[in-house]
Amino acid sequence: MERQYTRLDEARNLIDPLIKGITDEEDKRGAYVHLYGTGLCAAILALKRGYDRKMYLISLHSLRMKKKK
After folding, report:
1. How far apart are CA 49 and CA 46, in angstroms?
2. For the chain, which residues make up each domain, given as ranges?
3. Which of 11, 14, 56, 57 could link 46 by a cystine bridge, Cβ 3.0 to 4.6 Å?
């Protein structure tokens, strides 16, 4: 059975090269910690509000990226 391509995969394809491009190991570790923390926060908020966890995670990261620009 073939795995379906999801929006979460799309987000990973955008985020992974950004993190892999970080040369400072401490900054890279911080980026991963941030992603895991955001993912946990998104999962908790999604469960509490009855939303899809994956879509909530993508939305939170999209907002974060827009604020940085």
Report:
1. 5
2. 27-69
3. 56
